[in-house]
Design a protein that fits this description.
alpha+beta, 10 strands, 2 domains, Aminoglycoside 3'-phosphotransferase, Chain: A, domain 2
Length: 439
C-alpha cells in the first residue's frame, strides 16, 4: 500500500514538474524575447548619455586618453550651449572638448554632428582642401551611434564676440584675416561637384540634417500662433505682415537662392576664434596660415550661397551696434540710432576691410553674381529678422530694441543699394576698387 502511494505521489510530482517546466520554459522564452526587444529598442532610443561621472571612462574606452591621465582628469560642464558640452583637462596639459548632440522627445537627433564630421573628413580626403584645416576647429573623434564629437580644445584662442564686447575695439587686421579665410573656403570649393557630392552623403539608413534655403518667408498668421508666441512677440508678426515690400524682398531672395560652394551657414562672431597673440601673428609678412583665426561649429555647413555667410557675419557686427542703442518710447528711431553707445561708424571700417579682403581673394564671385554685394546686404537684413525670431522664441520678448532692429532689417532688405553706404561707410565702387590695408 505504501509502495503504491509512493508511486502515485511520484507520478503526480512528475506531471506537475512537467507542467511547471513547460511554464518555466515559456516564461524564460518570454523573458528572453522581452529583453531582446528592450535591447533592440535601446539601440535606438536609450543611447548612452554623457555625464561628468562617466566621461573619463568613456574617453579611456575610446582610446582618447591613458588610464593614469583619466584618473586625474578635471571635468568642467560648459553652460549656455545648444548641446551637452564637457571640457576635460588632463595633468599633461592636454584639453579635450567633448560634445553630445541633444535628442528630441522621440529620442532622435538631427545628425548635425555627422554633418560636421563629414566636413572634417572632406578636408582630409581632398588634398587641395588640406590648408583649410589650420583655420577651423580640430575634431579628432566621432561616435556616430551616440552622437558624440571630440575636439582638441583650442585654449590659446578666444571668441571674437567676447573680444569685441569686452575690449570695445575693432581692429581691421582681424577683419582682414576673417575675410581672407572665408574667401579661400568659398573659392576653393566653388562649383566643385566632387566636393558637393562628398558633403551631401548621408548616414546609412538615416535622414541627416540638411540646411535648406534660409530665405523661406514667414508663414502668414493663423489662429494657432496665439498659443505658441508670447503676447509681446505678436507685435513683430503683425508688423511683418503689414510690410508687403519686406515680404516681397524675402521672396526674391528665396527665388534667387544660388548654392555654388561650401558654406558655413551659422557664421556669427561667437563662431570665430582669435589667437591670443593675434597682433604678433598679423604683423607684416605673416599669412592666414599662421592660425590667427579659426571658424568653428560646422554643424550646419552645406552647399550654399556665399552671400549668406557674409550677410550673417555682417548682421553680427550690426548686432553690436543695435544692442547698444539708447531706446525709449519718447525718442525717435533716427535719434536712437545716433545715440548708440557703440556707433556704427566704429564698426564700419572692419566691415569694409573684411569685404575688401574677401573680394580681393575671391574676385570671381563678382563675375558669377554681379549683384553679389546687394545680396550680401539683403541677407544681413534677413539674419537680423532671424535674430528677432530667436529673441521672441528664447527670451519671450519683442521690445523697442527689436522694433529698431526690424526697421534696420527692412531697410537692408528693401533698399540694399541705398543701404550699402550705411553698412560699409564707403560707396560700393570704392569697396570693389580698393585693396585693404590693415591697421
Amino acid at each position: 500500500m505504501k509502495a503504491r502511494e509512493k508511486d502515485v505521489k511520484n507520478s503526480l510530482l512528475f506531471k506537475f514538474g512537467n507542467i511547471f517546466g513547460l511554464f518555466g520554459k515559456y516564461y524564460r522564452n518570454l523573458a528572453y524575447l522581452l529583453s531582446s526587444q528592450c535591447s533592440l529598442i535601446g539601440n535606438f532610443t536609450m543611447a548612452f548619455s554623457l555625464s561628468s561621472q562617466n566621461i573619463s571612462q568613456y574617453l579611456l574606452d575610446s582610446g582618447l586618453c591613458k588610464r593614469e591621465d583619466s584618473e586625474f582628469a578635471k571635468v568642467e560642464p560648459q553652460e549656455f550651449a545648444k548641446n551637452f558640452n564637457l571640457l576635460v583637462s588632463f595633468p599633461n596639459h592636454c584639453k579635450l572638448l567633448v560634445k553630445q548632440e541633444r535628442r528630441s522627445q522621440n529620442g532622435k537627433t538631427a545628425h548635425e554632428f555627422f554633418n560636421e564630421w563629414q566636413f572634417h573628413r572632406l578636408l582630409q580626403y581632398f588634398p587641395d582642401l588640406s590648408s583649410i584645416g589650420s583655420w577651423v576647429s580640430e575634431a579628432i573623434y566621432f561616435d556616430e551611434h551616440n552622437s558624440i564629437l571630440v575636439y582638441n580644445y583650442l585654449s590659446e584662442y578666444f571668441d571674437l564676440a567676447s573680444f569685441y564686447y569686452q575690449e570695445q575695439v575693432f581692429p581691421t587686421a582681424i577683419a582682414n584675416t576673417v575675410g581672407t579665410v572665408l574667401a579661400v573656403l568659398h573659392c576653393l570649393t566653388f562649383n566643385r561637384q566632387e566636393y558637393h557630392d562628398f558633403i551631401a552623403q548621408m548616414p546609412e539608413g538615416k535622414l541627416r540634417y540638411q540646411f535648406g534655403n534660409p530665405a523661406q518667408r514667414l508663414k502668414r498668421i493663423g489662429p494657432e500662433i496665439f498659443g505658441s508666441v508670447p503676447a509681446a512677440g505678436l507685435k513683430f508678426f503683425i508688423l511683418y505682415q503689414r510690410y508687403q515690400s519686406l515680404q516681397s524682398a524675402i521672396a526674391d531672395l528665396e527665388t534667387h537662392w544660388a548654392p555654388c560652394c561650401l558654406t558655413h551657414n551659422d557664421l556669427k562672431l561667437n563662431n570665430i576664434l582669435v589667437h591670443q597673440e593675434w597682433q604678433q601673428l598679423s604683423s607684416p609678412g605673416k599669412s592666414p596660415d599662421d592660425g590667427i583665426v579659426r571658424l568653428i561649429d560646422w554643424e550646419r555647413c552645406a552647399w550654399g550661397d556665399p552671400a549668406f555667410d557674409l550677410g550673417n557675419l555682417f548682421a553680427s557686427y550690426l548686432g553690436i551696434w543695435l544692442s547698444s542703442l539708447v531706446v525709449d518710447p519718447s525718442i525717435e528711431l533716427e535719434e536712437s540710432l545716433r545715440l548708440a553707445v557703440i556707433p556704427l561708424e566704429v564698426l564700419q571700417p572692419s566691415i569694409a576691410v573684411l569685404t575688401q579682403a574677401y573680394l580681393k581673394t575671391f574676385p570671381l564671385i563678382l563675375e558669377y553674381r554681379c549683384d553679389f554685394l546687394k545680396r550680401v546686404v539683403q541677407f544681413a537684413g534677413l539674419a537680423l529678422i532671424h535674430q528677432i525670431e530667436a529673441m521672441i522664441h528664447y527670451q519671450k520678448s519683442f521690445n523697442n530694441t527689436g522694433i529698431c532692429m526690424l526697421q534696420v532689417a527692412k531697410s537692408l532688405l528693401c533698399r540694399p543699394e541705398q543701404s550699402m553706404l550705411t553698412v560699409f561707410g564707403i560707396p560700393e565702387t570704392d569697396l570693389i576698387r580698393c585693396n585693404s590695408t590693415p591697421s
